[in-house]
TrEMBL record:
Entry protein name: PRD domain protein, EF_0829/AHA_3910 family
Gene3D superfamilies linked: PRD domain (1.10.1790.10)
Annotated source species: Raoultella terrigena (Klebsiella terrigena)
Domain of life: Bacteria
Amino acid sequence: MNNGAVTHDVGEQATQTEQLAEKMLQQVYTLLGPRNIIPNAVQEQMLTSHVRAMGPPVN
């Protein structure tokens, strides 16, 4: 039944969060590249984790 209430598809929200995280990471690397800043593996993992953590919570 659709009573007009807002519903959230958790799977769709998770997909959107992942897409936003990937877009933001690309933008960060675009900013770092011209300055010849190359994160090491640990820094990449931390950056990825932090960007994903900034997204909306998936319930």
